[in-house]
Every structure is written in structure tokens, then in C-alpha cells.
Amino acid sequence: MSNQTGNTLLALLTGAAIGAGIGILYAPDRGDKTRKKIRKNAKSAQRELEKQLKSTTTKLSSQAEKTRANFENKLEDTLSTMSYKADDILVALEAKLEDLREQNSKLQKAATSKK
């Protein structure tokens, strides 16, 4: 959970607890009515927390999926680029090897013709 969401949840819980405490202290109603109000407010706070948790979970899942897809795309691009570069290196090495073979052949012919 992000820090901002954690702060929001903490503020919501703190507000609910303070509100319940003040409600008990200044309640003009009988105890059973006050307890019903507290229960009602607690359930409301619980629903709000559940809604916010679900929203945050959905956002985090969505962001994680986007990040995963982005990573896979970048990885694919990198591997593709590396493959092309490896092919270029192989072509250059094969050309160099062919040049060396030709030079070796010329040197062997020159050496045999001197004998």
C-alpha cells in the first residue's frame, strides 16, 4: 500500500475512534441507543475501509500488470537488438576468417614456390 493510502486509512480509523468516544461522552440517548449508533458508525467505517482497500488493490494490480507488460516489451526489444548485433559480429568474424584463409593460402603457395 502506498504511504498516502496508509495515512488516509489511519486518519479514517482515528476519526471514527474519536467520533465514537465523543459520541459516548455527550450522548443524550440511552446506552442501548448509543451502542446502536456506535455499531452503525463502525459498520459504515468498515464498509468505507473495505471499499478503499478494494480500490487500492485494483489500482495496484493494474499498475503491476502494466509494469510487467512494459518490462516484457523492453526485454524482448533488448534480446532482439542483442540478436542482431550478435549476427553482425558473426558476419564480421566470418569475413575476417575468410581473409585470413586467403592470406594463409597465398603464403603457403609462396613458400612452396620458393623451394
TrEMBL record:
Keywords: Membrane, Transmembrane, Transmembrane helix. The chain crosses the membrane at residues 6-27. Pfam families: YtxH (PF12732). InterPro entries: YtxH. It comes from the Bacteria. Gene3D superfamilies: Apolipoprotein. Residues 54-64 have a biased composition (Polar residues). Coiled coil: none annotated. Residues 35-67 are annotated as: Disordered. Signal peptide: none annotated. This is Gas vesicle protein. It comes from Galbibacter marinus.
